Amino acid sequence: MSTEVTRGYTDGDVDTNFTDNRHLNSIVSERYSRRGTLIGGFKTTVAALLGTSLLAACDEDVFGGGGTTVSAGDDAATTTGRLVTLTGTATSTTAKAPSWSQVSGTPVDLIGSGSTVSFIAPAVSTATDLVFRFQVSDILGTKADETTVTVSPAVLGFNAVAKNLDDIVTVPAGYSVTVMTRLGDPIAAGVATYANDGTDTNFAQRIGDHGDALYWYGLSPTGTRDDNSSVRGLMVQNHENLNVQYLHPNGPTNVSSGPRPAAEAIKEIEAHGVSVTEYRDTGNRTWTWVQDGAFNRRITPNTPNEFHGPVRGSDFLKTVASTDGTAGRGTINNCSNGHTLWGTNLTCEENWAGYFLRSGDDGARTPRELTALRRYGVTSSTGNYAWASAGSDPMFRRWDARASGASALADYRNEPNQFGWVVEIDPYDPTKAPRKRTALGRMGHEGAWPGKLTAGKKFAVYLGDDSRREYFYKFVSATDWDPNDAQATDRLAVGDKYLDNGTLYAAKFNADGTGAWLPLVFGSVPNRPVTGAEPEYVFASQVDILVNARLAADAVGATPMDRPEWTATNNATGEIYLTLTNNNAAGRPLTGTDAANPRHFNDPKGASNQFGNPNGHIIRLRENGDDPAATGFAWDIYLFGADSAEADPNNVNLSGLTADNDFSSPDGLWFSRPQNPAGLVKPLLWIQTDDGAFTDRTNNQMLAALPGTVGDGGAKTITNVGTGGATATQATRVGAAATPATLKRFLVGPKECELTGVDTTPDGRTLFVGIQHPGENGDPTAPSSHWPQSQGGTASGRPRSAIVAITRDDGGVVGL
Length: 816
Description:
The protein is mainly β.
């Protein structure tokens, strides 16, 4: 007599609590209650062996009759993104060729072979049955059994991480953290291991400081571009700024005024820019990086680049080092980024203006020049880190932007005009010089994220200008998108096609939840009127408008925003999200609010008042007709940052935040990739913070969200409160309130860090996160953080910015 052996399914769930949702165990138990007694003891055995909870009940049918008895196991239920394991059994030792196949339902890739296979539950909009068949062969023929896995829509499948002030990266139970490339790590053969004591040099071949936005570019086993590779790839990361006190043995010399030692200045200059580093999964999401990878590369402020687009060759770009205005050197203060479907990286120059020395030359400048220089903040008497004082080498002289020669061809007065651009880099070709895309305008670029691409429609890029009371921009290509360009081999030539010609717009947000894109086109942009002590500015050409995009946005009446930072595109809806990090009382006074920037309140930090909009918000818009070239849009405010313990729920905590999801100063923003279930149907959104207002309660953090759509809330009028108890009302548009099912805290960073940069492998099973400037307020003798050493339990050593790789212990999609 044959013996029948049943087995169950596991979805890889590790003690997950679906807060505010019925647990799937209860659903399955009701559906299959008549079989509950049969599987009771078996569930315990499987859970012990696999370390996972069982969401299954038995349902067996036998095909073929006689001889070998086979079982495909129990029907089961799971949710999008979970790892499901199927194990079939047969009673006969003579059974051969065990195999699994999918019979019906949303197609999945079965991983493995033989009796046991697994798959990632696909993205679905409603509960969907997937039917699988297990079969074997014996002397009587083929025997098979079928089982059904019911997949429900995505949920935030983790318990919220509590706010904390610890000196580690804290993630939910069931997740692991691996520290990847850190400040100073060598990325070329023969470069010594980083000593981390201030003596290290040669940052042109080391990971730079203040790692910011990052993006994964897949590589095939043979080292060619592979957009779907999740085991080998290139990590492209920006390096925005410096914890300069830790770069030298005893801190920097004369950093505020100069003269600076040349060796110190060279190190600091080279620690800026961009890095490209090969990452590899050595098996089962065990990550490492390759020091001598063939694609490894540093792009620093000294790296040659080319100007492309309308400003190329203009007088604005001509200097003693580039007399024809076509060539430049390097990129600096690279903050957020963008990614193109043709496989290039868009890095963005943000707070570049402060690096230049420029004072005492007003008499040699025209009124127009002075207006533009002041509008962009090129006014420092020393420049950040005083590099111009380090010697006569052009590497240092270029940071002296004073008009000192007979003309612009004899000095570096125009050097500031060479910065503030979006820079396109081909990570797969280290021989190609980066290209600065001048059609996208010059500003304090936070990011440059493309909108949803549709064949035959224009290509749009959304741009934040990260400073208080600056603007939100959009660039629309002159050329319609051709999907055939996505896999072109000359990737920068594709960038020429879409990024060098088009129209730049600035956004105006109306009180009724509509908005308009105002074209910044010569002939339609009026003169910028007299503003304070600044005279009227008359635009001379389209080149003038692009170089001085801030002045043009002033002139057309765009809406000043509360520090426009990262943009992100929801690939399912095409909606665009923009983080507005914060504003102070000067930038957003009680009488200076508007519908898109509606709050003025106080979030006290200890004994200090913080009036204005200290906690920030996230706004989103949808183009009219879902057309990237539309000149109108609808908008609302998706989330408002707030302290849930103290904020007024009617006028400040407008999103109904709780202790599990309250946040302040949203900054980084990114939707999951559409190559995996987290990026489909209802894409998972990641939100990172760069906060100072809330850091007495928690270190900076990252949250996961499942957003709705524009218009899922409604109109609201709030009462703002200023100093002395003065009040004013403001109408606005709010999105649906957050719930535990739609917003949870996923990660808290180490002490004094900022969360900067987020991406996953294409399969969504590894999440990469940037940890910037831990311990930024310490000094070499008393570091205020010891991360990343502290991640492994060592409370010593200077802190270092770094990337971490985060994986689910059960192998599922991160966050779901």
